[in-house]
Amino acid sequence: MNIQDRFLSLxxxxxxxxxxxxxxxxxxxxLYAAYGASVAMLDxxxxxxxxxxxxxxxxxxARYYRCDVCSEKEVRAVTEEILRDFGHIDVLxxxxxxxxxxxxxxxTEEEWDQCIDIGMKGTFLMSKHxxxxxxxxxxxxxxxxxxxxxxxxxPDAAPYNAVKGGVAALTRGMAVxxxxxxxxxxxxxxxxxxTPMLISEGLQTGKIATGNPQTPEEQAAFDAFIDSxxxxxxxxxxxxxxxxxxxxxxxxxxxxxxxxxxxxVVDGGRxx
Length: 272
Fold this sequence. Notes:
Helices cover 48% and strands 14% of the residues. It has helices at residues 3-8, 23-34, 48-57, 72-86, 109-137, 158-178, 196-205, 216-231, 241-252, and strands at residues 14-18, 38-43, 62-66, 91-94, 140-145, 183-190, 263-266. α2 (23-34) packs across α9 (241-252), α4 (72-86) packs parallel to α5 (109-137) and α5 packs parallel to α6 (158-178).
């Protein structure tokens, strides 16, 4: 193996990815598997099994695990199951999350709790149960999904701003706590991507009426919404999930072996 391959390789690594059924989580699973990792794909949507099956058909080592990251009982059980199946965990990607596009005045307590629980509590619980195994094996990597909202506020998105700011702060704290165990912890702050989450934003804000346009009018509204998401960015477009996934690949490999506690902004320049 030449030096370029060694620094980019994930051969022999086991990666756990939450929210792996679609969007960034799926793109990260695909890319990690392409670079040699065995991937444990966690989601609450059993359609994720179809994605894991597709990767296996392509010769990759991928397994789906149903897990509600808000439940410590489920997180503990799935961690033990993954360790039984794969023997070790080298990379954890805390990616599961939702978005609520409301101010604090309009957000219900239930909506607030749901957003915080999935994005923040889920990151806490997954890390709590996987970090001890990383300590025992001499190290590991954690990559958390934050957002440009962790740096620059998004209007009418109070719960989301709170979650992503919290994820970035938790990332820094975990990096300080676990660096001595050779565990690196970083977060990625993406901009808009054409994912189910972005479509949910469009529906919540009333900018689109459907995520599956059927008429010319619906398609025109959908296209205008997507264009608007990129229009105020210096690169004048939104990203693909694969483009964001490459930052997750960088952070999981030895290409970033001296990086920890950092927020990597990949948002087309919005926060510049």
